[in-house]
Structure formats: C-alpha cells, structure tokens
C-alpha cells in the first residue's frame, strides 16, 4: 500500500489510538466497539477524505450499514446527544429539533480527530456502521458554534496518531481495528 507523509516524515503505516466514551454516548460507542470487536472494519477502505472528514464504514454491496447475521436490513441506532446539564443522553432528535440548539454538548466536535457517527441528513435514526474522523479547523468549526454539535453523535476522540489523518486518502485500507481495553464494559442488547 501507500506510505503516509506526515509533515515530511514517511511512515509505512498509520497507527491511531482512539478513546470511546461509553458514558456519554453509550449506544453509539457501544455500537462502534461491537463492530470493531466483530472485525467489521478490518480490510475496509476509506470511502471519503475531503479535508473536512475522513469517513469509512460503508460495506461492499447494496447495504449502507452493518447487517447482522440472519437479518436482511442494516442494524441502525438512534441519534444520541449528551447535552450539558442533562443526566442522560437524548435520543432520536437534534438539539435544534428539541428546541435546545443553543445548548452545548458534553462531547463537542472541537478537536482534530473527533469521532462522529455518520447518518443520512434527513433521518436522525439512520446511523449504522459509517463513521468519521473530523479534520477540525477552528476557523470552520468553532467549538459550540459548528454545524456538527447537537446534530451528529460524537462518541470519542483520537488520542494518538491523529496527524496521520492529514495524509489518509480515499481507497486507503484499515488493515485491522481492535479494542485494547474496556470490552468487559460492553453491554449486549437482549
């Protein structure tokens, strides 16, 4: 595969470490961890890299998301936003739809490599397996005033290797993704 050029230094592979926030985004974080644990993202290509986000998670074939064994439709999860001051996340609507568009979120899209769950623009509850890294630019996405906060679920942050995202291109492949710690915290639906 291609090598990665990060500020003039060439690397054979990109290694990133992310922290998933299962306390403030339990459904979204749990969905992502479950798919990583199943090996869903292993060998998957990056489908979008446009300077705003790097996105993946769209499997080959007609489906737009993860289809569990024995099912015919993708598994979806509701939009999940933890608003500052709330004791539990709100589900199934944006902060604007909930008439709280001016409220801050506990997990804002305010850093390079923030993790967001992709969904169709017109269906708050259409997220499945597609997700993105935000390529944060403070001029374009000021914290608390950008279009993502309260409209898309942020479920964690990249804590190591985020600089690799500068050179990730469409078609690059996720060789493997694995959960390093915390699998014992994942609660499977009954």
Estimate what percentage of residues fall within beta strands.
15-25%
Q: Average pLDDT value?
A: 92
The number of distinct β-strands equals 12
The class by helix and strand makeup works out as mainly beta
Low-confidence stretches: none
| Element string (H = helix, E = strand) | EEEHEEEEEEEEE
Strand order of the largest sheet: 3-11-9-10-6-5
Number of helices: 1
Summarize the biggest pleated sheet. 6 strands, antiparallel
Task: Give Rg in angstroms.
Answer: 16 Å
What's the overall geometry? globular
| Span between termini | 41 Å
Helix content: under 10%
Protein described:
The chain contains 1 helix and 12 strands. The model has no long low-confidence stretch (mean pLDDT 92). By secondary structure, it is mainly β. The strands form 4 sheets. Strands 3-11-9-10-6-5 form a 6-stranded antiparallel sheet. Strands 1-2 form a two-stranded antiparallel sheet. It has one helix at residues 26-37; strands at 4-6, 9-11, 17-20, 44-45, 48-49, 53-56, 80-81, 90-91, 114-117, 131-134, 154-160, 173-174.
How are the secondary structure elements laid out?
Blueprint lengths: L3 E3 L2 E3 L5 E4 L5 H12 L6 E2 L2 E2 L3 E4 L23 E2 L8 E2 L22 E4 L13 E4 L19 E7 L12 E2 L16
Antiparallel strand pairs: 1-2, 3-11, 4-12, 5-6, 6-10, 7-8, 9-10, 9-11
Key words describing this protein structure:
6-stranded antiparallel β-sheet, 21% strand, globular, 190 residues, mainly beta
Entry summary:
By secondary structure, the chain is mainly beta. Helix content is 6%, strand content 21%.
